[in-house]
Amino acid sequence: EQSAAPVPCTDGQYQDEKGQAACKDCIAGKHCEESGGTEAEECPRGSYCEDGVKHPCPAGTYGEAVDLQNADQCTKCPGGSYCSSPGTTRPEGACEEGYFCQTGVNVPNP
User: Fold this and answer.
1) Which residues of 72-91 are buried (b: 16+ CB within 10 A; e: fewer)?
2) Percent helix / strand / coil, the chain, rounded to 5
3) Distance, CA of 101 to CA of 89 (rounded, Å)
4) pLDDT average, residue stretch 5-15
5) Are residues 49 and 68 in contact, defined by beta-carbon separation less than 8 angstroms?
6) Contact between residue 89 and residue 64 where contact means Cβ atoms under 8 Å apart
7) How many whole angstroms separate alpha carbon 27 and alpha carbon 19?
8) Of 34, 54, 33, which Cα lies nearest the Cα of 43?
9) CA-to-CA distance for 31 and 11, rounded, in angstroms?
10) Contact, 73 vs 47, CB < 8 A?
């Protein structure tokens, strides 16, 4: 249904040019979550941006780089370390004494 008034772009879309008849889909690795957004924004460290929506890297992983496009691009926590919180930008710490941590561990004492 057509509208007599301008329609804002929805989540996952943006429009950076005047006088357009439609919105653009968000660019891979960027997020566009602001209604009526005018730009695709950088996906921050600790997150990945899929279909224009920002998500935290899952526990057991971290996101050191910007503009990750999917969860597979989050880095698994290295052996000897743990990553317990979603959305971290580096391993949170070393495994506790008496334990060893394999790659992708999300607790210090598995």
Assistant:
1) eebbbbeeebbbeebbbeeb
2) 5, 25, 75
3) 19
4) 90
5) yes
6) yes
7) 20
8) 54
9) 9
10) no
Residue 38 token pair: 């005018």
**pLDDT confidence tier of residue 43, bands split at 50, 70 and 90:** very high
pLDDT at residue 11, as a whole number: 87
Residue 53: phi, psi to the nearest 5? -115, 135
Structure tokens at 54: 């920002």
Q: Which has the closest alpha carbon to 84: 72, 73, 96?
A: 96
SS3 labels along 6-58: CCCCCCCEECCCCCCCCCEECCCCEECCCCCCCCCEECCCCEEEECCEEEECC
Write out pLDDT tens, residues 66-110: 999 999 999 999 999 999 999 999 999 999 999 999 999 999 988
Determine the Cα–Cα distance for residues 94 and 72; give it in Å rounded to an integer: 23
